[in-house]
Amino acid sequence: MAVSHVIEDERALIDAIREIAQERVAPRAAEIDHSGEFPWDMKELLAQQDILGMPFPVEYGGIGASELAIVMAIEELSRCCATTGLLLAVQQLGSLPIHLFGTHEQKQKYFPRLATGEWLAAFGLTEAGSGSDAAAMTTTAVRKGDKYILNGSKRFITNGGLAQVNSVFALTDPSKGTRGISAFIVEKDFPGFSVGRIEDKMGIKGSQTAELIFNDCEVPVENLLGREGDGFKLAMMTLDRTRPGIGAQAVGIAQGALDLAVGYSKQRVQFNKPIAENQGIQFMLADMATSVEAARLMVYNAAEMIDAGAKNFSKYSAMAKMFASDAAISVTNDAIQVLGGYGYMKEYPAERMMRDAKITQIYEGTNQIQRLVIARSLLTEL
Ligand code: COS
């Protein structure tokens, strides 16, 4: 596996997470997929083990992990259960706007309970008519005295309705385009906040994906993140930093599928010998392993660039997410092929892995949007 540059303490943490994932997360994965229910037990496990505290600074009760350690943790969890890996990824996504633009008071108010896992976080950007075109949002926020009044709705929100803390983006000045978008911390029990439809999905079945509805929702002015008009930039800055985490989820799923295919091919006997003795299977496994490793290196590299404060990491972050998610689809597809008829059956996890992998090509920006980000960066670099 790739050489990584995490410090010794973080190496020990990742090793512990791998063990926890294999012993306690893996046995629950099929059941979580089958029931489609949010895995509160996995949330508790991640909270108790301080895994949900990884993205939060030590001074606010977290463990202040590096981005590299966070992506490695997401990878280890997703190798066993993509829904469980997503718990950590979204805890970071939903809280990163506060991390980036929040005041000390805002961090002090929200981070300690997010770090312990008592509270979950969510990221409210997407709307029914505003997906890839994030600036096409119609949710509005109008200031009235010491409150902003939000009206509109958000769609496909991971942890929607479960998260106490929601980073929500809304138009404060529709005439200014992207510069008229602002970001707010919206608590689940603010007046006027409610949860609409809960989606039935193809994969990551245990993760709750819901609609957030704002009906004259009252948000105190002190919950504005940064200044009015900072919202779009903040959303983009957040996604630049969290896309490697989705890449890591994809790497984890792909590694899980590779492990399964290797194990199966050594045991499955056809024509009086294990199918692994056929070069046709060996070449497939070799290609799968090479894709996983290349994706992993890209994800680790993007995470290390973020940790190092590198200037142009946005392009690498988009490349890592795009490459790793495409690899996850291809590797899980091949894993099903290696398992043959068994791969197609729900008795084996290969088909779940493929369904789980598909979303990594879509959320936090479709892979077409990643290409756009990469190309724009290439064409504007000196
Ligand atoms: N970091 C900081 N600022 C950024 C930025 C980034 N990565 N990307 C854009 N901006 C800024 C631009 O600099 C520009 O600022 P100025 O007004 O000061 O010039 C502003 O944001 C608008 O940028 P741009 O004109 O590029 O916006 P577009 O409407 O063309 O949208 C894309 C750009 C397509 C990249 C954006 O809409 C996007 O990322 N879409 C996908 C959204 C997504 O990932 N959704 C998933 C939701 S979470 S599951």
TrEMBL record:
Keyword terms: FAD, Flavoprotein, Oxidoreductase
Span of the signal peptide: none
Domain Acyl-CoA dehydrogenase/oxidase C-terminal: 229-379
Domain Acyl-CoA oxidase/dehydrogenase middle, residue spans: 122-217
Names of the cofactor(s): FAD
Ranges for domain Acyl-CoA dehydrogenase/oxidase N-terminal: 8-118
Domain of life of the native organism: Bacteria
UniProt similarity note: Belongs to the acyl-CoA dehydrogenase family.
Name of protein: Acyl-CoA dehydrogenase
